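Quick question: what would this complex look like in 3D?
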Amino acid sequence: MKSLVLGGNDAVAYAVKQSYVDVVSAYPITPQTSIVEKIASFIAAGEINTRFIRVESEHSAMAAAMGASAAGSRVFTATSSQGLLLMHEVLHWAAGAGLPIVMANANRAVAPPWSIWAEQTDSLSQRDTGWIQLYASNSQEVYDLVFISFKLAEEVKNPVMICLDSFLLTHTKEPVAVFEGEIDGFIKEKKWKALLDVDNPEAFGALAFPKDYMPIKIQQFERMKKATAVFEKIANEFKNFSNRQHSVIEEYGDENAEVVLITMGSLAETSQLAIDKLKEEGIKAKLVKIKMFRPFPKDELKESLKNAKNVIVFDRNVSMGKGGIVKDELVGALGLSNCIGIVCGLGGYDVDEDDLVKATKDVLSGKIKEDTFLWGEK
Amino acid sequence: MKIPKDEILKPNHLACPGCGAALAMRLALKALGRKTVIVIPACCWTVINGPWGKNYAGVPVFHTAFETTAAVAAGIKASLEMQGKDDITVVGWAGDGGTFDIGLQALSGAAERNDDIIYVCYDNEAYMNTGIQRSSATPIGAETTTTPAPMLKNRPKKDLMELVAAHSVPYIASATVAYPVDLIKKFEKAKSKKGFKLIHILTPCPPGHKFPEDKTIEISKLAVETGIFPLYEIEDGRYKLNKKPKFTGIEEYLKLQGRFRNISEKEMEVIKENIKERWRRLEIKFEYFN
């Protein structure tokens, strides 16, 4: 293990380099670009034995990734925002076919108006495509999650999307502990065989009549649900190599908190600062960071929130006409009556710890009584 | 030349009687052999190959989204090469809708990269699987459910061969099921070459073109003899004509098919003019680029 100063995109590329990836199929989009550029440079320098298919669109990027995976390769791609939306149809195909593709998505706002800055509406609009979704809060998590994702994808037979907030994570550099040879023991063995086999010719994805379609979809649902437990198991194995623990949800702050803040992605780092400030002011608060959004960690969240008097969800995303998507999911899963959703930071709009502290106090004092946008008071 | 005896395509597939696309696959597989992987997008072959649990093609088949044939095939080939499985032929097998229209971007992408795949367009000149709607491969004067008489298709068919030729790929050929030896030879040639290959096969469709199911071969043959569907190859940029048409029988070709029953004399003249104009351009290529 050594320490390098890496941005989130660098961390992805570095981990892909160490993950024995056979095929990368990708199309550039801001701010994902430097991931695929860096992978290309590793290939050009002869540092990795990986084939790079330079496709003509994100739709084809996912299609080629799907073909490569079906033929038995370990496959990676990366995208962002509009590119992810263009892939939407093929995301369903890849998940339905149970292909262990790993993709990094730089969470970027969706046009119009054009925006290249952080927001999670792009990936959250893909929540029903059947992809496992993980959200990283810093470059170390991004790096670690790549290794865990390949293992998870191959074991569950399902694609995995690793999400990292654009610029806040993709381009902000920080020290990252990176592996040397020791990670081989974790990642080198591939648990994936080709579906397409000329000695055993089968057809995949054929027309299914209603009596077949529904049980196949139930099977897919069960496969996905299993991913929560498999993630925890693989994360424990990963701890042996890194001494770093990852979980589907993670907590920070006071266990007996009267108010719980919930969020995903880089906002969790800001929330930690807010928790510390609230503590200084005598307010017992804790953060629950959702690392795995799909499958939704319902049981873990239920346990974590069982004593909470107040729950506030900070969503850097929005479902038009409804509100924050994570808040909606949480309430849908747990039926909370004490939960306020606050949509903030859309299109990269700055949110700092003081904003979160103020919003939390406004909820506790009753000034904020219902779901709202954090906006206009700076 | 002997036609290979091995019947890879199984006889109980789900094609309509007289289907040109089923016959095309049967002949193509004879040439390609069992070390072949096929990618099929939304098209008649989605149905022909059988429902969930069946695979009448007899080689591995990956069913995929409408517009992704070439990209998926490129991914499969790259993956096989990375595993050292260089003896497997990867074939994208798409209809005219999935090729001329919605799949054109991925096709162009794979052709430009010169991915080592065979892309086959079996062309029945309309969206037959969804009930005979016009595609950009539908010829002028044809009646379809989206161009019902009197508003017949009024634009000429897109020229796929020349479109792909603009990508400077090693091999492009046209074929029809009326000339099985010619078709098999072309698949064998395509299999032997590295890089992107296109084979454009005219596959008449009895319900879509509205002709009796025993006329498939006759119509395929007439398409070539009339000059409506030229049989030629573009090998490393060199043009080669495989069958010289007689340029007769155009009326007979059109009369045999119900889809042309409503064309006027004026449209008939336009069709004849289009054939002449296309051949004027092609002959220059046969002469100067051979």
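Answer marked as accepted. The longest helix of chain B spans residues 265-288.
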